[in-house]
Specification:
By secondary structure, the chain is mostly helical. It has a domain at 33-117 and 125-174. Helix content is 67%, strand content 2%. The chain has 9 helices and 2 strands. A two-stranded antiparallel sheet has the order 1-2. The radius of gyration is 19 Å and the shape is globular. Mean pLDDT is 88; it is low at 1-21. Residues 31-184 form the DUF4395 domain.
Length: 193
């Protein structure tokens, strides 16, 4: 994230112009930015597995094979089941917040105590919104796959994988950036009135 988007996301610390010193205890509405990156790394790995399973089995990419299966048979394929689990995790993260997401809890209990305090915190709203974006993408891919649309499952899983990989590897959260763009557009719309 850039300094401008960092400040807009509610971060405090050196990257936001030193507005507030780093603290060991985050504000109530903030998260350690390493937590969502940790979750994104696990999610990216699972999404990569879903893409690989969908491509290796070939059913999701073969129109004739896909048409021969009932929606229930499509659902119990390994790639579909894995994407269903990931969809449920995205919904959980969007509904409960990234702090209460299973990967967020693992980070908070097992990983964060072994790390130095973060240099900055970030608002929980952008990564929580990103979880909702992930739910929409994986849910749409799963629904289209169950409806018999070829390539829907691997394409949706690949799109979600790219977003999760960018977050895990480069700390670039596409869903967070979308949140900030929508927030700015809403604020700009109010200012124009």
């Amino acid at each position: 994230m850039t300094d401008r988007s960092t400040a807009a996301a509610g971060r405090t610390g050196p990257r936001s112009g030193g507005q507030a010193p780093a603290t060991k205890t985050p504000p109530a509405d903030a998260v350690d930015p390493r937590g969502p990156r940790f979750a994104a790394a696990i999610t990216a790995t699972l999404l990569f597995a879903a893409v690989a399973l969908a491509l290796l089995t070939g059913t999701a990419t073969d129109p004739a094979a896909l048409a021969a299966l009932s929606p229930l048979q499509r659902l119990v394929e390994p790639a579909s089941l894995l994407l269903l689990v990931l969809f449920a995790l995205f919904v959980w993260g969007a509904a409960a917040g990234v702090k209460r997401h299973p990967f967020g809890l693992i980070f908070a209990r097992l990983v964060r105590p072994r790390l130095a305090p973060p240099a900055e915190f970030e608002a929980a709203a952008p990564p929580t919104f990103a979880q909702g974006v992930g739910a929409v993408v994986t849910g749409a891919g799963l629904a289209l796959h169950l409806a018999g649309v070829p390539w829907a499952l691997p394409v949706a899983a690949a799109a979600a994988f790219i977003a999760a990989f960018l977050n895990a590897a480069f700390a670039f959260c596409l869903g967070c950036e979308l949140y900030l763009l929508l927030r700015r557009a809403r604020l700009a719309g109010r200012a124009a009135r």
